[in-house]
Please model this.
Amino acid sequence: MGWSALLQDEYIKAVNDIALAASTPVYLVGGHLRDYVIQADTKFSAKQNGGLAYLDYDFAVKSEKQNGAAEFARLVSEKLDGVFVLLDEKNDTARVVLNTDTDNPVNIDFALCVGGGIESDVMRRDYSVNALAWDPKNPDVLIDKVQAMQDIENRTIRALSEVNLKDDPLRILRAYRFSAALSFSIDQTTKDWLAQNAKMLSSVAGERISTELFALFSHANTFVHLQAMADNKVLDAVFPELAATRVVTANAYHHLGLLEHSLEAVRQMELFYERASDRLKESCNQIIGHKLNRLAVTKVATLLHDIGKPQTWEITPEGRHTFYAHDSLGAKMSDETALRLKWSKAVSRFINRLIKWHLRPGALFHSGEPTQKAINRFYRQVGVDVPELILLAYGDLGATRGQGLVDEARARLETRFDDLLNGYFLYIEEQARTPRFLTGADVMELLQIAPGPVVGELLEALDEAQTLKIINSRKEAERFAKEHFFKQSQ
Model:
């Protein structure tokens, strides 16, 4: 089929017009071209493909000049009123960002053809599906030097060479991300190379690893790809914290070893998410970082929720397995992971909180039915993270099927989690309808005290009393605050 329809894209046409005027050969390569080709085949749907990457373009620039690609990118930025970003001066790569004042900026990347021409350039790429090229001067022909179209037909991720993977070990992770995005399988030779070179990931900058990881976790059915990574020991290279979980065995409550339990928890939470309420999905779809939503980060927290167990594992004389304080230790360990992988503060705090509190939903029901006061306290302490914490709890429970937790008890706990989640949404609606009788400033003026923890404690006590209808007016709130403060002061 012809591919000249690509010239109808306004950004491709604009770059081509500038290239023609500057007598600089350019070729469309990379993800946009790959996705366009796959989408053009009616056997593939947009959903399978993860959607077309219309807002990201990659061009290979043929130039004899030093820094010729960066120079051309600067020209494009001037002509299109964009922002020029030098990505790598040594390797001559640069980016032009357009529409920076919108929610959907356009990234156009330019890189010098490796080896001087497009034929040699494509041979240095990672996977065959990314090694297609298109010359706008010959728009009806797709350049395919590596049998990429055959791999697309067979829905296969195939590395062009082991050397190419070693040149940039991050490409090891990209195999799983492409597999997830395209619903393609990884061929066996490539799998072998990924396993043999997994340890090289330790040389890759943390922020680059995180970009690939979070992209992977943003796709559905992440579990399948995590399992493949675990089988190849790639997961151990990315998360050394998980390597130790391989030695923790099954026990009365856990029918799986700890690593398998952690992976299964991700699978179970993904299954629950598919049938979850719109309210929970709305919370999970909120953005927490650049192109990153809370659902993807919750999957990471679910995978890591038990990383504190290996160091706290003990077996009593009676044969019972204990993991005291593994939740708090795991939260601290996640902070170290966050530093290593350069996570943002928002992401690292969110993961820390979910791991630290992952036992809380179940613990509420260990001694029978909790009081409404206890439930409201849980809602206040966990706050906006309640939906994602319950989601993690569902995953953890679904992956816990040892004989110590009978089916009846599990079903009862699932019902309690349902009630807890639905109750939270009712709770926040009630809170929104009922403003506080007293603010922090009111409390400080009323009691003549300075800002500090006491004010926060009083406000929490007031919120609890107001929710439980113990106080119903500002006057009652003032009296309650005075009495509470007097008791606490004694």
Summary: DSSP finds 26 helices and 13 strands in the chain. Residues 27 and 439 are 62 Å apart (CA to CA).
